[in-house]
Amino acid sequence: MLLVLTHEGHLVAHDTKTESATHLMREVQSVGTHALSPDRSMLAVSYMSNDSTHAALVDQTGSMFETVHSVPGEATYSFAWHSAGDRLAMAYYRPSSDGARGPGDVLIVRPGDTPQRVGCRAAREVLHWVRDGTLATRDDDNIYLVASEGCATRASFDARRIHHATYSATGGQLAYIYRELDYDRDAGADRPDSTLMLSAPEGQSSEVLFGD
Fold this sequence. Notes:
Blueprint: E1 2-5, E2 11-15, E3 20-25, E4 30-36, E5 42-48, E6 52-59, E7 65-72, E8 76-81, E9 88-95, E10 101-109, E11 116-117, E12 125-131, E13 134-138, E14 142-147, E15 153-158, E16 162-167, E17 174-184, E18 189-199, E19 207-211
Antiparallel strand pairs: 1-2, 2-3, 4-5, 5-6, 6-7, 8-9, 9-10, 10-11, 12-13, 13-14, 14-15, 16-17, 17-18, 18-19
């Protein structure tokens, strides 16, 4: 199945086997982040309409399309499926004027049910189900490993220079870009210096894979 946004603003599920198309939603301006369930049967996807941003679940045939959450105006969603594929961790935030992660929340979604708040006060993005009851989340300053019920912090580490944090499928390793700014005296400006790092899930035992 291909998810297609037409020039007319129609979100369409296109079955590549039968060459058939199912119209899912109209008046869609853009499609954002997405995440495929472990068994590849469900896709979580965000999309923006004229005045709101939404999160939806769609099955691989396109016969089921369920908008599970909506936020007025512009928002950024992130998704992480549980390894069992029966539930989805979902987070959103409204970008602030300086590009930081503004107001938002973290929720757990089960297909057909109302999303339930995890209870996080700081986290604005969900990265991975690290273990059965533990979510990896983040805000602008820190990555938090929290309980999926109640959001009790189990570990945290400084993430102010961490970009594109990505956990392995099992949650056992974390890859990320560590970015510093070195001052170039000749140019009279900061020069970005980026390094690809690998660490344990809680940020410990980090190693450099390569730099620049």
